[in-house]
Amino acid sequence: MVKASKKHTVISCALFAAVFAALLITATFTDLQVSQILTKGTLASGKFLADGLFGVVFECIGTTAPYVVGVFSLEIMFVYVLRFMNNPAGKTVLCCLLEAGAFAAYYVLALDILNYNFRHYGLEGTPKPAFVRVELAFVAAFIVLLVTFAVNSLSDESIRRLIRTAFAVLVAIAVSSLTVEYLKHPFGRPRFRAMNYANDFSYYTRWYVLNGQPDKEWMKETFSSTDACKSFPSGHTQSAAMAFCIVMLKDAFGITSKKKAALLWCSATLWTGLVALSRIMVGAHFFSDVLVGGTIGFISVMLAREIFVCRGSHFKALAGKE
Known about the structure:
Layout lengths: L5 H33 L14 H9 L2 H21 L3 H33 L9 H23 L3 H32 L4 H7 L17 H8 L11 H6 L7 H5 L5 H24 L5 H23 L3 H6 L4
Helix pairs in contact: 1-12, 2-4, 2-11, 3-4, 3-5, 3-6, 4-5, 6-12, 11-12
């Protein structure tokens, strides 16, 4: 079990809260200015979609993290059931469900990336031909097969170590995704690019204002899109923050090397930061949107890690039960 000290836990939580509060206060008063600076040269006046290479690429691939770590977790469960479950009938059913879930996840990811590409080609809403869907299905099945073989090459000990991590990852993905989706509707914050398209920034509101969702036809006519008022919080950045799930590998395998631990933390932070930056650059979100979206994802991962992997060690440390 991962051990934790009260002092370290308190300092970490206090530092995180202080940095988040400082950034949120800054974003509250600079959102519009930051977006105006970062969209310059990438989002032309009167346009809804940006054409900057960096922003567009990350718009298309920015949601990959939860699918990658999610499928890895499903495959850990699949191999665990395959090796250690004694009930033949239950084993067969569970294995089929887990593999079907992994396939569905990668198929949805491939379709999501394709949809974003279609959108930037001006083909949004165009029905996908049957052969395209079949091709995506083959790609998804092939990747799942590769991941299955890779995970199956792990030792029994490694699979046992990782099973708690697998549960933690899936819980983090579910909780953070549902939280962001739930918050988008009552806040109903107009996107920067929606107001840019309308050439009317009088619709701008700060992140804490509850606007609600306007009529879809009105949004389509005014902003050219029915998701124009779902700026807060950022779903892409929440998805990117699922990269922090790799930190659980340190706990699962007892990695004590500070360099390896730093590499895991820095890799997740870099990916999340790049996606967050890209979302502002394409005008899809404001600074506060990506800050809160990424924080929801990060906190979800840390809480799931605490419950399933660390087994409440930090909670116990705070209560003086180290």
